[in-house]
Each structure stands twice: as C-alpha cells, then as structure tokens.
Amino acid sequence: MIGAGTIGSAIIRGVLDAGLGWSVVATGRKASTLRRIRRLGARVAESNRAAVEEADIAVLAVKPHQLPGVVEEIRGAAWGKVVVSVAAAVPLSWLAERLPGAHLVRAMPNINVVSRTSFTALAAEGVPRRARRLVEALFGALGVYEWVDERHMDALTALSGSGPAFLAEVLDALTLGGVAAGLPRELARKAALYTMLGTARTLLGNGMHPAELRDAVTTPAGTTIKGIMAIQALGAKKALIDAVLEATRRAAELRGAVEAPRA
Ligand SMILES: NC(=O)c1ccc[n+]([C@@H]2O[C@H](COP(=O)([O-])OP(=O)(O)OC[C@H]3O[C@@H](n4cnc5c(N)ncnc54)[C@H](OP(=O)(O)O)[C@@H]3O)[C@@H](O)[C@H]2O)c1
Q1: Which residues have CB under 8 Å from 241's CB, separation 6+?
Q2: Would 47 be classed as within a structural domain?
Q3: Which of 94, 102, 110, 238 could form a disulfide bond with 83, CB atoms 3.0-4.6 angstroms apart?
Q4: d(CA 61, CA 84)
C-alpha cells in the first residue's frame, strides 16, 4: 500500500480483516502515518520502491498531485507487477506512459472497504488474466467489484466514490428529521441507519425499481405520501441528481488537469 491515508488505511484494515492470509507492507511520510500502519497490523516499508519490489500487488493510494513523485520512485520496481491506482481522475494512459511493463488497473473503491462492503469499479486494458484474478481477489474481499469501461470512471468517482458522503448527508437529514419529530438522537440515528441498510438490501434482493418500492409502501392519503410530497416540493431528489453531476464534472476537470501537457 503506497500511501496509507484515509482510503489506504481502510483497504489495509479490510484486507487484514478478510482473512485472505495476505501480509501487507505499506508506506507513508509522517510519523503518525507510520504508527497507524503498524497499529493496523501491517509492516512499514523502507521506501515506496522497496514496498513495490516485495509486493505481488501494489496499490497506489496517494492524492492525484502526489502520484507523479511516487511513480517516478517505483518505475523500475513496478515492471511485471500488478499495480492498482485508486487515485481519482488519473487515467490508465497517464500511468502506462510512466510505468512501462506494469500490469495496470485503475480502481475506484469507496470508504466502505473498511466494512468490506465497497462498490469498486475496475478498469484495465490488456492486463493478463492472472493479474485480473489477483485484483478481483483483493476487491472481492472488500465488497463487490465490477469491471467497467474507463470512460465511466468520472461518473463512478462521483456516484460510488463520493456516494458515501452523499448518503451520509441523507442519513444526517433523516436523523435530524427524527429529532425534529421528537425522537431521542440515538434512536433516530439507529432507525435511519438500519432503514437505509435494509432498503438497499431489499432492493438488491428483489430487483425492484426504487419507484416500485416507494409505490408499494405509499398508502393513498397515508403518512408516506405526505413525506414524498415534501421531498418533491423542496427539490431534494433534484439536489441529489445534481450532486452526482457536479461531482462528475469536477472529476473530469481534475482529469483534464492531469492530462494537460507537461510544461
Ligand atoms: N478517501 C476516499 O474515500 C477515496 C475513495 C476512492 C479513491 N480515493 C483516492 O485515493 C487517493 C488517496 O485519497 P485519501 O483520501 O486516502 O488521501 P489521504 O488521506 O491524504 O492519503 C494519502 C496518503 O498518501 C501518503 N503519501 C503522500 N505522498 C506520499 C509519498 N510520496 N510516499 C508515501 N506516502 C505518501 C500520505 O502520507 P502522509 O499523511 O504521511 O503524508 C497519506 O497517508 C486519492 O487519489 C483519492 O482520489 C479516495
């Protein structure tokens, strides 16, 4: 793990919790990052290059602007290795130019790797089957994955990469709604969390369209329709559609900056 920050640490924890029997070697810069790596049960490597040299699969989890320095460091060591970049907005072509000979995979997981319930989008071109299997073993242990065309990565960065933040906002709003209606805060929080989890599980299980589920629980002149009317009137649904669109635009903007010719 090159860069044990927010997502890197979450992946380390998920991998070690999954019982794959893998050992993890990781890097960071600050003393606090190195302490966190050890606390998670991983080993600290001497350098990014040393970590990649001894790894079967290297995950690059630094910020996009930190990636140029990191790829420069690991260039020779990455030859013939499986290298997964989780950096938003950094295209496979950019990585391929700088890491020749590496089997490159671009991944967009989300923070739910920590509870091994991430939705992870994967993109690669011309990567051998063995390398794909290794990447699938990693992200399969951390939730569900889907191989996608790389052109969908900006939208998925928004929908599923940033999605936990959007849903956290929805959860916070529902919890506050419960508090406004007189519920103790902890009870409101628990009710909101399990309702979101259960709704996702029900929809995954029965394959229903969300609108079908909504209609099934909306009694004419009942309580639910009053809530739905408030959602419609205040444009809450449109706001969530726009959240995904705005985040997608930002991902494209960042990609543009990464792809811009170097001075
Ligand atoms: N956060 C998410 O939910 C999420 C989801 C999907 C994808 N991503 C992608 O994951 C990447 C990391 O995001 P993040 O939120 O985890 O950022 P972060 O918390 O800032 O983590 C980046 C880590 O990289 C380390 N680092 C920076 N330069 C390094 C270097 N030269 N050598 C070794 N380690 C280095 C930093 O260590 P120090 O702190 O010690 O400097 C830090 O621990 C981004 O590209 C982002 O697009 C994030």
Answers
A1: none
A2: yes
A3: 102
A4: 9
| Domain that residue 199 falls in | 163-252
CA 209 / ligand 1 centre spacing (Å): 36
Residue 107: DSSP 8-state: E
Q: Looking at the CA of residue 90, tell me the nearest atom of ligand 1.
A: 45
Phi-psi region of 182 (alpha: psi -120 to 50; beta: other; left: phi over 0): left
191 and 90 share one domain: no
- pTM strictly above 0.85: yes
Is the domain of 190 the same as that of 139? no
Same domain, residue pair 149 and 167: no
Per-residue buried b or exposed e for 173-182, using 16+ beta carbons within 10 Å of the residue's own CB:
ebbeebeeee
Residue ranges of alpha helices (H) inside the chain are: 6-17, 31-40, 48-54, 67-74, 92-98, 129-141, 153-156, 163-180, 185-206, 210-217, 223-233, 236-259
Q: Is residue 24 assigned to a domain?
A: yes
- At residue 204, what are phi and psi to the nearest 5 degrees? -65, -35
Task: Kindly give the distance from the C-alpha atom of residue 8 to the centroid of ligand 1, in angstroms, as a whole number.
Answer: 7
Residue 228 and residue 142 in contact, taking contact as beta carbons nearer than 8 Å: no
